[in-house]
């Protein structure tokens, strides 16, 4: 993988990019802020998208398709709320294909598709900021501690190669409840519909409640000696 490169201020780059946001629609994929995701890019229109992104701000959004059958349609409907991220690493093959790592930056809402001038689609969009309770992040410290404990319990029930111990260690060090819950959701919420629901939830309190319930369910299943259904 090529050296990791990102704009000096990715969030500022995203704020500018939403005037004409490049979109790479996929089925069953939801990119959460702060989390990395690898992609193999082979379709001509998306090879062009990655090329242009690498030549510019490196910002790309990954909206979810409504159905798998839409994957090969020219302009299928897209779920409006999606994750936008920055290409932080890439490899280019001789035939123009790419392997990329996209790191989520923020939730965005697609507002209006721009007139087609390229092989790929572009949208006017807006960045969706987190909504915290009246007491701010401090009001969610109890829920954050519950999440930490659940992830620790999960790490004791899964093999080291699962990555759960590393996840528990990372979450134990995190102070921001929004960042922590997104990291856990990316690792532990396997159902595509549930991940999209987490992505669409801008209330950090409700997002935390949803992910705590999900992780608690996995821990309960593992405690009974059954493998989680993924």
Q: Tell me the span between the first and last alpha carbons.
A: 29 Å
User: Major β-sheet, in short?
Assistant: 6 strands, antiparallel
Q: What's the shape? A: globular
From the alpha-carbon coordinates, what is the Rg to the nearest angstrom? 18 Å
Provide a count of the helices. 7
Percent range for β-strand residues: 15-25%
Elements, N to C (H/E): HEEHEEEEHHHHH
Tell me the number of strands: 6
Q: Report helical residue fraction.
A: 25-40%
Q: Helix/strand/pairing class, anyone?
A: alpha+beta
Looking at this protein, list some descriptive labels.
230 residues, 6-stranded antiparallel beta sheet, 38% helix
Layout: helices, strands, pairs:
Blueprint: H1 10-17, E1 21-23, E2 36-41, H2 44-55, E3 59-62, E4 81-92, E5 98-113, E6 121-128, H3 141-157, H4 164-173, H5 177-188, H6 192-200, H7 204-223
Antiparallel strand pairs: 1-6, 2-5, 3-4, 4-5, 5-6
Helix pairs in contact: 3-4, 3-5, 3-7, 5-7
Model description:
The protein is of the alpha+beta class and 230 residues long. Helices cover 38% and strands 21% of the residues. Strands 1, 2, 3, 4, 5 and 6 form a 6-stranded antiparallel β-sheet that branches. α3 (141-157) packs antiparallel against α4, α3 runs parallel beside α5 (177-188) and α3 packs parallel to α7. It is globular and about 50 Å long. It starts with 9 loop residues before the first helix and ends in a 7-residue tail after the last helix.
